[in-house]
Every structure is written in structure tokens, then in C-alpha cells.
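Subject: Sanity check before I submit

Could someone independently write out the C-alpha cells for this chain? I want to compare against mine line by line before I put it in a report. The sequence has 272 residues.
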Amino acid sequence: MLVSVVITVEIATETLLPRNVGRAHYAATLQRLRACDPNLVTAIHDNDGPKPLTCSDILNGRSNREGTRLEPGAPYYLRVTGLTERVSQAILEALVEKPPAAIELLHHPLRVTGATASESDHGWAGATNYEALVARQMLPRGSIPKQVTLQFASPTAFKQAGRQMPMPLPDLVFGSLVERWNRFSPLALSPEMRRFGAEMLALTRYRLQSRPVTQKNGALRIGGVGIATYRALGGDRYWLATMQMLAEFARYSGVGVQTATGMGQARRLESQ
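---
Independent answer below. Compare away.
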């Protein structure tokens, strides 16, 4: 099961938060999940690999060098996604079925006014499963589009040859996605998707800006925010379907590094 829950919050008084609160949101989410399944939270926290959930920064926050200013009474949005059945069920229980009265970020309580996993309620919400993603792309007859557009809503970066890369190059994007898919899905995909991205996918259009994210030690990691379009220069039905399927999966998995703490929030755009 895959789930993306969007939580609507508001604040009582004008508040200036740090520019990046993804790490604080991750801590608050684990605290909430602990009430549902303490052993699950321990497993998530102790796992050194990719986490089976993502926690966003404030999706519609307006930030500058000073930070992110929140106005009283205005709706703001946070997002939590789950990549496994157990994690997704815990997220639904903790945030949708029994939503908290407030979410505290860096000692600032934000009142929860709603939570949804329905895409009809919010464009970043959603619920599906791995089998449904496969069926939607692999089974239908007819041609498969050779182009796909992704929106990177929070700074997105990758590790490449020991260095950080803030540009969403095709092999890095689809390599990251297929690795997460194969880690959490019961249906394996060819790991050669990274190689297909390097050799057969072209970045044809992009509108990106670089944004810094402050790390725990005070250092900065640079990531890209914006829109990028990828086009297959060749490939049979399997590779094209896999490209489209992984693009849909990005809504739940995130892309690149530090997706659990706010980076790499991404989704497929239907037409660009």
C-alpha cells in the first residue's frame, strides 16, 4: 500500500520559522506514529537505508533568508507518505482516522484543521498500491508516451561519485526511484533502469532553481526546485512503461537524498 496524506494546519499568531522544518516534521511524525505502533517507529529510526516514509517541509510556505513566515488563520499544508503496508496503515490511523489536535514544529504548535489521502481533496494527496501502478502502465494496449514531466517541489539532490549533485539528471532521478521501488515493493523491476536513464533518456526541458537546505551540523546542501521533462530516445514497451510507472511512484517515494526530512518532494505532472 502507498499513501500520501496532506495535513492542513494553521497558526494562532504570526510566526517566523526556520526556512527548513522537514527534520522537525519528521520528528513530530515519528512521535505521532509511536502511539500507534512503537515497534514500527523503532524499526524506522534504526534503519540506515532509505526510510519507508517521507515528511515534507511546509508545502506552501514562502521562505526567504530570514525563514518562513506564517500568517495567523492562513491554511498551510504538510505531507506524509508511506511506502509499505504497515507504515501506510499507521499513517492513516495516526493522521486521518485519529488526527492530532496540533502538530508542534520547533516548539510552535500548528492547529490541525484537516487531513486527507484523497487526490480529489488535494493534488498532492493520494492512495494506491504497487500492483495498481504496474497494472495501469504495463497492461493496457496501445502506445506508451515517450515523455514525462516531474515537479520537484522541495530541494532535490543526489549523491554522485562522493559529491552532491543538485541537478535532476535522468539516470539519477530514475535510478533513485527504481532503487526505492525494489526496496519496498513486492514486485521487482530491473535495476538496469538507471542505465536506461543514462543512455536512453534526455532532459529536454527544465525550469529549476537551486535552494539550500541546512543540515544538522549547520552545513548547507544544495538542491533543485522546479519542473523537468524527460524524453526517451528509444526503448521497448517495458522501459517506457517503467519510466511512466516510476514517475507516478515519485509522489509517494520522493526522489534523491533526505526524503524523510523534507527534501525530494516530487510528483508527475500530466501535461506540460
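---
OP: Matches mine. For the report I'm noting this point. The two ends are 28 Å apart (CA to CA).
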